[in-house]
Amino acid sequence: MKAAVLGSGSFGTALGFVLAHKGWDVLIYARNESLVADINERHENTRYLPGLQLPDNLQATTDVAEALFASKLIVFGIPTQSLTSVIKQVRDLLPAGVPIVSAAKGIEQGTHRIVSEIFEEELPGKFHKSLAYLSGPSFAKEIVQKIPTVVSIASKNEEVALQIQKDFFCSFFRTYWTDDVVGVEVGGALKNVIAIAAGVSDGLNLGHNSRAAIITRGLAEITRMGKAKGANPLTFLGLSGLGDLVLTCTGELSRNRTVGYKLGQGMTMEQIAAEMNQVAEGVATSQSAFELAKQLGLELAITEAVYRMLYEGLDPSRAAYELMNRELKKETF
Questions:
Q1: CATH 1.10.1040.10 fits domain 189-324
Q2: Was 244 annotated as part of a binding site?
């Protein structure tokens, strides 16, 4: 069977790798012709996953219609801020009744929509029962290296969730499923913002105590936002909540933690952006989350500090001082 992956970044490629390992014929849609040539001829994503061999049944194309034609599974590996434009580009090409899986983790700037809201508002109703969302602690490089990885599949349609769970499950990629779409989406989005804060802490050499505090109080902020959006608070103790938060806040492969780490070391956002070739979703999401929290009447102190560091030039050391010297409170989630 054929599967389409829209987006040739590291994570889209990694999910395509899992499906190819399962025997699917995978066709990745990419805009970069040289990258398409490398995937097809060298069997390597030289830009995002250099040095890692891809299977022969994972190919690429610059023609999105070709990628989608006759596909029995569609994976969106598109960053959140580009999702709306890509969905509008392809929605007339999407086959009805085929499962659609999104791997994006963010909140859209301007609209403050989480990923599931983007899909449900941009796609006609006939596609809604086919939608699912994949999240959890998963670095793309480690997936392609076949290092044991466990993720969560969220869908409002149990039949679709169970099918996608089976489609992706293999010896090195274990899948759980849940119907808490909002919880999975909020956890996946806000953990990137908290990871920037954790990176700043590490960049300032504040130690393990500070990092643990950021992770714990960051989880409180994620839970607060999730509850306001209608999520089950217990979801945030699972793979797409605590699991992904811990990985992204501590792992050396985390792009969002890297942004924060370099910020803490004194680099500017312009300098950091010039050194990175992949999107750190937390940068844009910090602004969206800050604005959404204000809209919902929520206090998210760490999220606000990250927003102010990235968009208002707040000094990282000053941000740490302000967080530590806020009004004393009861510990609540």
A1: yes
A2: yes
